[in-house]
Design a protein that fits this description.
The protein has 9 helices and 10 strands. The protein is α+β, with helices and mostly antiparallel strands.
Length: 316
């Protein structure tokens, strides 16, 4: 699951501008408010991308391309001083768009209100960044085609990156997460079988992202997701109770109205509380009490004392 979304504009063959990273809202929208000054002499056209970032802190690679649009300066400047929508080709029946405001001065100014972000990056990345981007691109192809060759190649790229990022490397946690996410995707489709090592990778990534780390919440969610799938295949109560305990920690970290809360957290909590076994032990009673405190009566996700059924079709 992406940690955030950002916009990338290719300036020339070697440089690009990128917006700040923003977390999607529950309405699947983002408000940036960034400003950038671009020169029309750099290129006769612009390549605009919406990209998903898999880290909110230090970013490994450039993330995954969600949508791309080639446009011209004339098209961008043909709207006077009024905001306008820049529509991208549809992606999986979703129609992405950006709301922009442009002004022509001695140079070209793109954006809405706010300060010039001035985030200019080189397009000539290092080896681990390129392999990470290739891994994301191949895994995206796998998710739409379920071709095992794409999965295997994605795993190979992510494994190569992890091999280049030892424990002391600042991108080690991100490399662990990327490899684990690809492996879990293959496990869900029954194309890979080793869930134990995949869960361990997520757990190791979580230990490297303690509370207070920008990627702690997403790492916690990833680990819970792996535990839920682990339980769904092996029905080991230890995995279920662990996921339930971690859900109690996850929910307060995800404000209502955020995309992670509405898509990821709600799905995880809903699965855990509707499948929470009847357990009269002190541990089970305490766990259910925590759930009740986090999901007050009247809330859609509030567990019922007698709930005990096993529907796996809605596992995240």
């Amino acid at each position: 699951m992406p940690a955030g979304i950002y916009v990338s504009i290719k300036i020339d063959s070697r440089r690009r501008w990128k917006s700040t990273f923003k977390v999607l809202s529950s309405k699947e929208s983002v408000a940036w408010g960034d400003t950038v000054t671009l020169s029309s002499h750099a290129s006769t056209a612009l390549s605009v991308e919406i990209r998903a970032s898999y880290e909110l802190g230090r970013m490994l690679g450039s993330g995954e391309v969600i949508a791309t649009l080639e446009t011209s300066w004339d098209e961008l400047l043909d709207h006077g001083d009024e905001p306008f929508n820049l529509s991208f080709p549809p992606v999986c029946d979703v129609h992405p768009s950006l709301t922009l405001k442009t002004t022509l001065k001695t140079t070209f100014v793109y954006a809405c209100e706010g300060q010039d972000s001035a985030l200019f990056d080189s397009l000539v990345g290092c080896g681990i960044a390129r392999d990470t981007d290739m891994g994301h691109a191949l895994f995206a192809k796998y998710t739409t085609s379920t071709m095992v060759s794409h999965l295997n190649n994605a795993v190979q790229h992510f494994q190569f990156v992890l091999d280049q990022c030892p424990v002391s490397h600042p991108d080690h946690a991100a490399a662990l997460t990327n490899l684990a996410s690809a492996r879990l995707g293959g496990y869900i489709q029954n194309h890979l079988q080793d869930i134990n090592s995949t869960t361990s990778l997520f757990h190791e990534a979580l230990t490297l992202c303690p509370q207070g780390h920008p990627d702690h919440t997403l790492s916690l969610h990833n680990y819970i997701r792996a535990l839920i799938w682990h339980y769904s295949k092996e029905l080991n109560a230890a995995y279920f109770h662990k996921s339930a305990q971690l859900c109690c920690k996850l929910l307060p970290l995800c404000p209502e109205g955020t995309y992670l809360h509405s898509i990821g957290v709600d799905s995880a909590i809903n699965y855990v509380i509707t499948d929470l076994p009847v357990d009269t032990s002190d541990e089970g009673t305490h766990l259910r009490q925590n759930m009740l405190e986090l999901c007050p009566v009247g809330q859609p996700l509030c567990p019922r004392p007698s709930t005990n059924f096993h529907g796996l079709s809605e596992i995240i």
